[in-house]
Protein 1
Amino acid sequence: MTQPSGAEFRTFRDPAGSLTIESDRVVRRVRPGYEDATREFLSSKLRQQWEDRGDMVATTVASDGPDGIELHHPRIWFSTYPWEWTLGQWRAAAELTLKLQQEAIAAGWILKDATPLNILFRGSQPVLVDVLSFEKRDPQSPVWLAYAQFVRTFLLPLIAHKWLHWPLSVTSSRRDGFEPHEIFSALPRLRRFRPELLWPVTLPVLLEGSAENPENTRKARQMHRDPEITTLVLGKSAKGLLKQVRRAAPPPGETAWSKYESTAAHYTAAEIAAKQKFVKEAIATAAPASVLDVGANTGTYSLMAAEQGAQVLALEGDASAADRIWQRSQAAGANVTPVVANLAWPTPAYGWENSETHALLERMNKKFDLVLMLAVVHHLLLHDQVPLENIVHLIARLTRKWLLLEWVPLQDPMFQKLLRGREDLYGSLSEAQWAAAAAPYFEQVRREELSNGRVMLLYRLK
Amino acid sequence: MRKFSALFSWMVIAIGFLLASEKQAHAYADPGSSLLILQTVGSIVTATGLYFRRRIASFFKRGKSTETAAEATEQTVSPAAK
């Protein structure tokens, strides 16, 4: 498996330009006919202000001549896709999109596409990465053509998550989001007329008959008004969407996983302190620039690594626990990016020819100086039935040098909980078997057994 | 009743006028159909609200300026009347 390279990845949907991802930068080529608009936007105060604030990715003009314009952007350390985001990330991405739309309207510009796929996260902060998303707006048009795209790709997934409990991860199968009728037909009849569902779901469905006439949509699209009114209308529509997003994505509820740390009965305070001391010292020894925390739970150790100067990717399968990571990372201003994903069933590549997004393992391949596997191996083994040798093989593909592991022994209550009567298969598992599986790839640097029987291990790649 | 029918006629004319004009748009994202019409409904509601706010504001302004003029006239006239 290789790192995503230019030859493998090139965008094609936007008629204004294409994008190529190279190992250390992102190259954007502006297509003929869009050069003047691009120059105007790049020289605008708005773009400069957004870059300074960190709301938009930085852009440098690499060349501007008869062959067209070539722009360069720095790479965001780790790309995550909307189907790997937590609820809080969805809300933050939607809020950023609408904030930029509001500011653009006031300055005479407009967002021409409004999809979560144009947002990446730098740590816990959303960043708009598509600089070709803006165009000068027609001062007499009160229509925001990307309004429907925003509703389909941002608002309706959030509404479906809140009212129908559809996981946000299902958006992986819907590049252009949901149509109102899909949500409408899944809603109980009376609920369809709740105020927060009436406007984005029920009214569009009731208007479908009228919308079937192409003449009506053509006329609606070509509306023409007094500039003062259009500014007011566009501003109100963005403000209304912001309100709807906040109602659809309230702060998350607690789950057993997000309560895990505070209720972890299998650990005494002294054992937690001993574990944290080992992890802190191991991170200091490894001095990693980049860390992957597998099964990060609510992010205690991810934040610890970030405090010691690393960029951290926190992988967590439970969306509520991952959202807690995002909240903690945001509150601390830490460089921790959560990913809602499962190492044993990782996100595949999607899109045209499976080449528009990258598989999670492809993005993670040899990306990290240190991989944290704290109390995870027994989950992969017992819950996902992955043999120890396969687990070690995968870790060796992810880390560039270090592995920090917490081994949960057979006698541990958490191991017993997952065993579920399969003693014949796993009942004789020992740390020695793990050590034998790890030996071909890793050398042990440090070992410490905690008083609850768990073992902390620091390894270096051979 | 006459006022209501005048208002209704104004709204019909305004909507007709708004839907009649044409402009080029360059965005490539699917603008939807029912959501697009919903957006135009929203914009008509907003524009109508703005129109009435302006009418009400101008009514009070006119009332205020008339009153001020009347007061001023009274003040000017009063001494002579006395």
Protein 2
Amino acid sequence: MFPYHLPATGRSSIRAALRSIATLAAALVAATTVRAQSAPQRAIALRFAASVDSLPFACGTSYKNIGRTHATITPSDLRLFVHDVRLIGEHGEEIPVQLQSDSLWQSEGVALLDFENGSGPCSNGNADVRDVVLGTAPAGNYRGVRFAVGVPFSLNHLDLTTQPSPLSLARMFWAWNSGHKFLRVDMTTEGGERRGAPTDGSEAASTWMIHLGSTECMPKGSVTTIPTQCAWANRPVISFAQFDIDRDVIDLDLGALLRSADVTVNQPKTAAGCMSGQTDRDCAPIFAALGLPFAGAPGGSQNAFRVLRGSAASAPAGGTR
Amino acid sequence: MSPHLASRVLILAGSAVLVVASRGLATRSVHAVGAQLPYEWKLPPGFPRPKVPADNPMSDVKVELGRYLFYDKRLSGNGTFSCASCHQQNRAFADSLPLGVGSTGEVHPRGSMSLANVAYAPVLTWANPNLKRLEQQAVVPMFGDSPIELGLAGREDSLLAALRGDDRYRRMFAESFPDDREPVSVTNVTRALAAFERTLISGRSAYDRYEHGDSTALSPAARRGAEMFFGERLECFHCHGGFAFTNTTDYVGKGFPEVEFHNTGLYNLRGTGAYPAANPGLKELSGRDDDMGKFKAPTLRNIAVTAPYMHDGSIRTLDEVIDHYAAGGRTIKAGPNAGVGSRNPHKSGFVKGFTLSSRERADLLAFLRSLTDSAFLTDARFVDPFDARARASRAHSATSR
């Protein structure tokens, strides 16, 4: 792979190798595209939305009755990566969607969805928002859709400054060893109906964050060590058997995501909220809502994402910028 | 004019004539070729290309002009101060005062920030989301009157006359701005200063050498400190992450510039969340109550040489900075600023406190010290050209004798 400067050190070599794998994967995808293009193609615009129970998500809005203690939350960030988007055909076959690449919202088969608009408590974000994943697929009759939340392993542990946008976002990244934040939900919390002090040793919390990503990546070595695997991939796969690609919208419901959590407390000596660690009990209800295994509990079906039927027809979706 | 200044000006005038005489025509033809070539940044490993405004492209001569202007005391109303008075190379282009002090002695409400890697900053100064270009920022210290920094307000004409009367400046402005009918202008002063500032790139610390493959560059203590710094127990890296050791960055190909402001619980006056009136942070411009006490996370590169710390220089040592974060915010027991910072309602969720053993504290300090780029602090490209000339001249006269 000539374009890559091959340094002498082991760590950098692994990084270069990972990049090569990513390039190879991209080339294979491209080759598939060329073959598939003999069939008529159609544009795909997979619409997304974010809500909190029955209300649309908006920066600066406070939402009541959240979680098992019916607390009030005020979100300050909501972004997520999506990849491996497939359409489900009439006989259950899965057809990959080739994602567009604009080096801004989408690159290398990964798309960013961004529901914060930089206003009010979201001021550490930016004005640009994005609620659609754009790509192409062979024309055909499709009845469902599935996708993975996050960044694929081959792209997840690279040097941020060498990555095209949206993989260049520092706010959606930890370090090379731990990779990207797949989903970021930040909020302040108040109120709640818990009576007395928490019985499990938790302490009161007024800030709660969900930073989903891979954990226990090995080898560890240091934060700049490039891992060869992560014990907990934590990439939720979301699948809807019944989905009209032209009319329906995929909605991330923070109310459902937080349904079994108590956002007014935090386990001591762990990150505020859930930052994906297996020892962070605050993650248990979040991972369950995303269908992910956690600390001995097997993964199950997710309930954080839902389908809004026929919502895409009326409102044109898209990104601002 | 003091005798000292007078002799310096004489030396300068002499050397300027020499330069003009010896370079003459050759300089012009070199420049014509140079204009075709992209600017060569000589970036440290792993550093992306800085963004440069389309109306102020980089060139070697413009950077050199900017260096002269940066160190030239004629850029102050009373001839006593230059940019370098508050941005000193051996302190990573910050200074050692808690609060900046201007040419007239007026004290600034905030401390001088390090200019290391300022080329990557999408917003400038401590808490101004609207100040986005170095060219635009330069006029603040030059002409601002609240506070007075360089004190040039109302003195534009005499500044420009002085620069036009200097052969070296006339030549350098002409070569830096070849399309301008009158190249010596306030606008071009700010452009040249910005071009020089963009070259102040620091990325060759011991930590950088370690990160790029030299496993011997860091002591075991500094390596343990790095693990804590980048870990979820201390949470430092969430705001001071990435190649710039601050998340507020932009560069060529980044896509989205990123800008963050955080309240770290430094104050909590009367338990209301308030900061001292002189420095409310982002709220001063946004007007939002929630933005009280929010400031930009500064780079931690060269942090060991930029004491005292925080926007108002209110923490003297790195050790005490660690105390502040370990407590999840600073408690001030008495006086007008009394309050429990850890309970500031606007505080970042990442500042939640931690406990460190004495060895862990020493490890963390060792890591922070490993971010000092000593080559940057002495890089000949950034030194005071007037001082360098004076030294060269002294050395020359010593050898001729």
